[in-house]
Task: structure prediction
Amino acid sequence: MDSKSSSGEGATPSQLIDARIKELGDWRGETLAQVRALIKQAAPEVVEEWKWRGVPVWEHAGIICTGEIYKSVVKLTFAKGASLEDPSGLFNSSLDGNTRRAIDIHEGEKPDENALKALVQAAVALNMSVKAARAPKHRK
Result:
């Protein structure tokens, strides 16, 4: 990795996520790349960000989810996950909170692609509805 990407200076968030995937070089990088592709398929207008000293974040009218990397898990934390329907039961972590919900993906596991895309689309829809509700109402 060149010094530009390792320091993050001048690199776009997408380039920093690319670099993280390459840097990991193991199942965690492959998993992050796979879920990233699914997020982009589910929400083509998604914006990638790089926050909190190195956490990939996917946004559309607000945060959809983050992609945290740990030694034994890739964690997708949905910012408003507690408000989302999860009929497939993908959420398996951070279940006690009032707001967030997470999906912990361990080595050898692959989340249900259609269920993950549905969760991403539901998160976008929720973000859009919250944004619309906050928009100023103009009087005639």
